[in-house]
Amino acid sequence: MKLLPEQIAAVTRSKLVVRGESCYPERATIDSGESTRGDLFFGLRGDRVDGGEFAAAAIENGAWGVVVRPEHAEGLPAAWTFVTEDPLAGLQALARGWRRTLGSRVVGITGSVGKTSVKDIARALLPGEVHANRENLNTEIGLPLSVLEAPEGTKTLVLEMAMRGPGQIAQLASIAEPEYAVITNVGPVHVELLGSVDAIAAAKAEVLQALPRTGVAIVPVDTGPLEPHLEKAPSLLRFGSGGDVQVVESRVADGVTDTLIETPNGRQYFHFPFTEAHNLENALAAVAAGVALGAPLAEMADRVANIGFSRFRGERLEMGDGIVLVNDCYNANPVSMRAALNHLASIGDGRRIAVLGEMAELGSDGPAYHREIGERARAAEVGLLVGVGEPAREYGPDELVGTPEEAAELLAAQLEPGDTVLVKGSRSAGLEAVAETLGELFDG
Length: 444
Description:
By secondary structure, the protein is α/β, with parallel strands linked by helices. The chain has helices at about 5-10, 55-60, 85-100, 115-125, 140-150, 170-175, 190-195, 195-205, 205-210, 275-295, 295-300, 335-345, 365-380, 405-415, 430-444, and strands spanning about 15-20, 25-30, 40, 65-70, 80-85, 105-110, 130, 155-160, 180-185, 215-220, 235-240, 245-255, 255-265, 265-270, 315-320, 325, 350-355, 385-390, 400, 420-425.
């Protein structure tokens, strides 16, 4: 970050009380244990721990400077020290300032499902220097950290925006100031927190109000409850069948989806390195974002080999004897669960197995959604349905176990050559342990 200490103080509305040595920090961090030479440490106050208490440890680990509340500024080792009543607000303001300094184009991505995959695909396809969130740095803390990681010369920022309640997307948009907004879809995700799908649509639509007059909203053809909010968008680009960006031809073979995509700028063949139908829809959203930014179609098509998905999102693991495990355990809701089961039904020649954990935050309709997914699993010809945790009882599983480790042990005892296994559940279910434990059992 080529920002002088005086600029940092001004932007974060903090007081510079101790001067350090070098002119610029390297990056921002909130973890004193991970702080290294050149870091600017923000002491954020959490529900249980006040990060300001670890400012000294951050400096001892080499931090360039710290941003802390007044009570944590006394007696620190020598380093640039900034004092403010609200370090989180300072972090967010600094990210906004760096975004403006970069002058990058900004694509904000939100939606009930698919936003991380759209981000991953867009990061690969868009030309020039592109910077995107790492992992799940997509919250009021993670997004500003992501922006502050962007190096000089970044042409495009692709920023995933998480939402758990009203006002959060508006807050993230005020930091990122997107000129392009992708809303992947709206579904029953976080219903427990917002009360209804209509309320979810309204919360997602907050990003539209942040767009400038020249901005573009990229949305699916079928927007459902989002449709009434689209009048807030300065202009629209729709993706999907019958939309501005749509698939004309598609063929799946040898792990590749060969696709002819039609756009307002012409047609282009893409050879996507995946076979999932839902990822083709995600790719359409990413291509549509590229069209909005004016990226040449041929150049995007040349970059498909760069596509790589974040961990736990449809990872394909070869377990030996032709056994394949699809590790899709980062999150789960009715929309993504249906898509994963549809994909399971389309792959493998042997038995299909689904290991399903809870779909969280679905409110009072949660049991009904679980029962519907159980029925969908049977329609997908799942030969063995394993539920993990008490809420998974509603799937009507063949086997119900209490923990991911027990699910792995059950699989190890029952897997047969040629089986294909889907592992999916909400993050809180911790189903990544299924693959980890199963791998250890197989290695043993």
